[in-house]
Give the backbone structure.
Amino acid sequence: MQTYKAWLKTFFSVFLSLLLVLTLVNAVADPMLVLPFVHRLNNRVRFINERQQKTNQLFFSSYYGTQDFDSILLGTSRSSGIDPSLFAPQYHIYNYAAAAFRPEEAYQYLAFAQQRHGKPLQLVVWGLDFMSSNGQKSKSRVKGGAPISYIEDLHKPCFALANLFSLKAFHLSTRVLRANLHATKEFYYERKPMRVVEYFRPGEKDQQAAFTESMRIYRELYRNFQYNPDYKHILQEIKQAFPQTRFLIFTTPVARPHLQMIDDEGCRAAYEQWLRDITDVFGEVWQFMDNNTVSRDYTKYFTDSHHLYPDETRLIGQRIMERENADAPADFGVKLTPDNIENYLKTLSF
């Protein structure tokens, strides 16, 4: 009997010790952004699930009384690197961009952000990708699609505590701690203000490999491209749903060979329709996805065929905010309106 009691005591002591270590590591690293603490061991955030991480951060920052945004930036991974401070002091932007973000997602994320802010958003900066217009006729309306599971998860009982006791979170936490203790050749988010910080640039060989691979992937996508006939309607619904919010729209740049591939694969007509549709809906659009100095000198500016280096995304922010001290090339960024778009398309060269 004594041996059994001693065994139980040892078992529970070891179990509680391991549980304590698990909880402490998860609390320190906080990989899913459910706690308000920012320090040197968790400031670099690994790309795990941007939609969940950023939704968590928006929810809990307001819960802990630390919300400090009045505007939102949307877009795909091409927009993730844009520094929110580029829009200060006029706007306090939260970068809600995420990989492969589609316009159909925008309504629910904006509604969630507006609800956390407590009043209408002042500005939505939105980077639109041509590929996001790919697809057959939408099966559901913007406001009536499937519930966003990431937002639903926040309302589950003890959601934050569950992350602290999770073995999966522990695995992620060890990666976060390593990333903060020893910088590796990866891009990370900086937890506040949730911007991608450029700690390195890949060598020429690695950059060329990434460029070639992204061109291969997109060539297959363009060969099967089908313009979504509901695309314009989706944008109209979103704009109409937030009548008190200003929308600042831009198209995301790509390297010149990537741009030429759109023409080579027979997608030019769809590309021109895409520009017409977004210009018609929003009234003006900053167009970066064309033949310009940045797209031509792509080895300097792009990490692959369609992602600018994080530091180079400042050129987009400077241009669309019309900063007088901008260092962007003069031909990088053209403001399209219903009055000039047809002349622009007539002279457009790929």
In short: The chain has a mean pLDDT of 88. The chain has 15 helices and nine strands.
